[in-house]
What we know:
By secondary structure, the chain is mainly α. Helices cover about 55% and strands about 0% of the residues. The protein is globular, with a radius of gyration of 15 Å.
Amino acid sequence: MTDQGIALPAYRLHVVAAVEALPSTRRQREVWLDPDQFEDLDHVVHVLFDDFDDFDDFDDFDDFGDADDPRPWAGRSLRTEEEAELMGRLGAAYSAVQDAVGADAADEVYLDAPGRPGVVAAAARTARVLAVDDRNTAVRGEGLEGFFPGGR
């Protein structure tokens, strides 16, 4: 797939971290269920699905991405159409679990949901592709503006 570069590299950092949080069952139980930790399922969902209205200065870029409708984010926080397609699959898998357990379900309920292995698999595949695409970009030395404030 063609790497379109990304207009919002700082947003991508949040998207990649949120996707990487979803396949690790052990980490989720250790971190998400610990009230002293910042990261929990709500945080991950917020990054992948919810608007961040504080970023209105980007006009139509008012969130990090949208796993429900990721195609417009290719070239913004996603590098390729493949990434957008995989993010859409991840969004569909997560939405199916959320529909089954309810949007207000506790993290423990989500972690025990029967459909959760589908989210883990979709997130693992998406995380691998995001990492490979970033690594390939770094090897070429392209598209890294914004990742290293003050230069490389």
